[in-house]
Design goal:
heterodimer, A: mainly alpha, B: mainly alpha, 0% strand, elongated
Chain lengths: 139, 66
């Protein structure tokens, strides 16, 4: 019977080669996974540095949390819903009130001043007239 | 005159009764605010992830209803 050097009769060497190849591949996969993990970690830390999450939380804790809720809301698909419409409507109403009220106040104050001035002038004229009448002069 | 005095007295009584409660509520709110801010500053990651999750849930519920 003829035996080939590269094909041993019992197959043990072939299994050994396969195991070696598999081991090398596993090593490669592990190395690649490690590289991917390192890169991801670096990217996340870069993103964290760029966004300055900690600084933002330190400066505006409630604002940052509210922004996170908003991001989650949008991710959850709540952007084009009646709830968003009603929230926007409410916001616009409050904003309009906040913007319009000071203007209205100012207008009212100016109007009151004008009325008071006119009232004062007319009273002054009225008192002059009464004085003339008491003295017996024609108005 | 008596009526005015009575009203003034009632107002004073109500104010005296409500004022301590209001002050207590104010103190509690301030302490709650301080502890909340401290917690957020100590655990920013947890708070932000939790906030995103809460927002996500609200968005999901809103999109289902809409």
């Amino acid at each position: 019977m003829e035996t080939r050097p590269d094909n041993p009769p019992n197959g043990r060497a072939a299994i050994g080669d396969g195991a070696k190849k598999l081991g090398k591949k596993m090593e490669k996969v592990g190395h690649t996974a490690e590289q991917v993990w390192d890169r991801t970690r670096d990217s996340v830390s870069d993103l964290g540095t760029a966004l300055d999450v900690k600084g933002r939380v330190e400066r505006h804790p409630y604002g940052t949390v509210a922004a996170a809720v908003g991001i989650g809301y949008v991710l959850g698909g709540g952007l084009f819903t009646p709830l968003t419409a009603s929230i926007v409507r409410l916001g616009v109403r409050i904003g309009m009130r906040l913007a319009v009220l000071p203007l209205l106040k100012q207008e009212m104050a100016e109007l009151m001043e004008t009325i008071e001035d006119e009232d004062g002038k007319s009273k002054g004229q009225g008192s002059k007239t009464t004085a003339k009448r008491t003295r017996g002069e024609e108005p | 005159m008596e009526m005015t005095e009575k009203i003034e007295e009632t107002a004073r009584e109500i104010s005296a009764r409500v004022k301590p409660q209001l002050e207590e509520a104010k103190r509690r709110m301030e302490s709650l605010n301080t502890s909340a801010v401290a917690y957020i500053k100590e655990n920013p990651g947890k708070c932000l992830v939790g906030a995103v999750a809460i927002g996500f849930l609200i968005g999901k519920i809103a999109s289902r209803r809409g």
